[in-house]
Amino acid sequence: MAHLVTLIPGDGIGPEVSEATRRVLDATGVGIEWDAHDAGAGVLEREGTTLPERVLEQIRRSRVAIKGPITTPVGTGFRSVNVALRHELDLFAAVRPSRSLPGVPTPHPGVDLVVIRENTEDLYRGVEYERGSPEAAELRAELLRLTGRASREDAGFTVKPISVTGARRIVRFAMEFVRSNGRRKVTLGHKANIMRFSDGLFLSIGQVEAESHPDVWFEDMQIDQLSMRLTREPETFDVLLLPNLYGDILSDLCAGLVGGLGLAAGANLGWEYAVFEPVHGSAPDIAGRGVANPVAMILSGAMLLRHLREDGAAAAVEAAVDRVLAAGEVRTPDLGGTSSTDEVAAAVAKDLQVPGPTG
Ligand code: NAD
Prior knowledge:
A 10-stranded mixed beta sheet has the order 2-1-3-12-11-4-5-10-8-9, with helices on both faces. Strands 6-7 form a two-stranded antiparallel sheet. The chain has helices at residues 14-27, 41-47, 53-62, 81-88, 134-147, 164-180, 199-211, 223-232, 244-257, 295-307, 311-327, 341-351; strands at residues 3-8, 32-36, 64-67, 93-99, 112-118, 128-129, 157-158, 185-190, 217-222, 239-242, 267-269, 274-276. Helix 1 (14-27) links the parallel strand 1 (3-8) and strand 2 (32-36). It has 12 helices and 12 strands. The protein is globular, with a radius of gyration of 21 Å. Bound molecules: nicotinamide-adenine-dinucleotide. Nicotinamide-adenine-dinucleotide (NAD) binds at residues 13, 17, 69-72, 82, 261-262, 277, 280-286, 292-293, 296, 334.
């Protein structure tokens, strides 16, 4: 039976890399019934919202989606589609692998790590008070009452909630991820010495859960030290477990370690739904020219295949990407080549060696 998958092509380079991905995934022979829906800037003009309810309903129906990047319209008052999707579908875990790829020279050739980022809390929760607003004044007064310390009158505020419930589920997710993906170690990043009641809580939940997962090697590291060590010895890390903000920053850093945004795949996962997407944005500077690197989204497609338990096809896509990159003849300009998005997709599709059905 075919797998029903919702496809959101996205904005900018999104439709170009989405089409390339669809072509490669179709070439694996895994039956996928694509259900394409628009969201984002184009839809805002037509329908007055960037994320129509019917798109959410469709994802709830298919349970699995893959999306291209979506432009966040600045100054329209509409929240980012990405944030809305994570919130509405409770996609609490972002999973972003960074692996050194053959034929893509970098200072650290042996990188093979995965960033697991908590997606729903922390400074990205959206609890904010604008400088000069009545709410900010009220909050300042309350903080003065509670702490005895005055905040500046011209201060804006962003609140950082981290809960036991939110921390526990992402820590457990990370431990299970290690177990089921043949990984060995979790490094939890934090700044618990300064933010005792948010990062400190995240850390303490990690330590408690580590005790009930003795087969997973657990360590914690302050986020500044972790950043430094990532630039010097990234090959020593395996799974990084991070609260929202640090996870956002370090997953781009890790993408840079292995050759840039054009190669970095990702998934947003919850207990019920899964939305796969490349780490990069809609790249308006190169959109419409057919030169975007489709590898990040193709590798996100491989993650989707694995989620659908099509492990053979997933491994075949990754191996074909590796071979095409290693050969070095077909690559997009961000990797120093002259090929188009379509040419890369065609080369990967042609190189696929999907194992036949067994049993
Ligand atoms: P970006 O990732 O779009 O681009 C940063 C740089 O990387 C640009 O020079 C771009 O050309 C290059 N780049 C990105 N992807 C590439 C690819 N596949 N191949 C070759 N080069 C690539 O980041 P930005 O410019 O900060 O953001 C542009 C828009 O995308 C914004 O509206 C932002 O909100 C949105 N965005 C969306 C997502 C998402 O949908 N998940 C993620 C990040 C940014």
